[in-house]
Amino acid sequence: MRHRQLIYGLVGLFAIIFIGGALIIPTPTLQKQVIKIGQTLTGQTTKSASRSVADSKLGQKYQLSDQQLTTLKHLKVTGIGDSIMVRTTPDLKEVFGRFNANAKVGRQVAAAPAIITQLQSNDTIAKNVLVNLGTNGPTDASTIDGIIRQIGNQHQIFWVNTRVPGKAWQASNNKLIATAAKRYPNVHLVDWLYVSQDNRNWFVDDNLHPNSLGEREYVATVGPVLAKYGK
Q1: What pLDDT digit, counting tens, does each position of 162-187 carry?
Q2: Is position 74 annotated as part of the catalytic site?
Q3: Catalytic annotation on 121?
Q4: Helix pair angle (83-95, 66-73), 10° resolution
Q5: CA dist 88 to 3, 21, 215, 221, Å?
Q6: Strand 17-19, strand 22-24: pairing
Q7: Which of 48, 50, 83, 172 is the catalytic position?
């Protein structure tokens, strides 16, 4: 994350992440520019920089390395989300070994406990849980804590933060999600707002729901976090 913050500060819209010595480029539309800047900053050649992205259809589409793709293909993931997850589920299914999503347009954070109860009663909640809730209204710390404790510390929880331009709850919800990720060792923040904030062309007219490019970028953002912490 320190590397990521440093590079974003230097190159604005470009993001470069170093994971285990490999260069990962999470923005497909800016790949060539980022590789060029990465060479300047790291001294790597074009050939070595390019090898970090898998030479495959999925690798190029989602800017994931061979190692990341291999790891993700072995993961079973349960998704709990709102309309953002509705739109991104087909892409997420391309990279995860198994992805079962419970997503609904307009869903509030407060709807999650009932969904989790149902998943647990059916024994269908995976070790990895991807949460994308917070788009449709404000929440509070007790609700988020309750969801995390209900899922349980035997699961890895990946919570995508919220991009809701012009809505007061964007900042407050994201602060709560970030705080939870620091408080619970099994909770991991996926910083979608940070990655997407200056990329209006990733979204449809409402500047909220990702278009086809944004859906790929969403997976390029979620994928490395799951690959690093998924079980």
Answers
A1: 999 999 999 999 999 999 999 999 99
A2: no
A3: no
A4: 110
A5: 27, 29, 5, 12
A6: antiparallel
A7: 83
Q: What pairs with residue 32 in β-bridges?
A: none
The pLDDT value recorded for residue 107 is 98
Check if 206 is active-site: yes
Residue 215 CA to residue 198 CA, distance in Å, equals: 15
| Residue 160 CA from chain centroid, whole number | 6
pLDDT digits (tens, 9 = 90+) for 32-45: 344 333 333 333 33
Q: Which of 103, 170, 94 is nearest to 130 (CA)?
A: 103
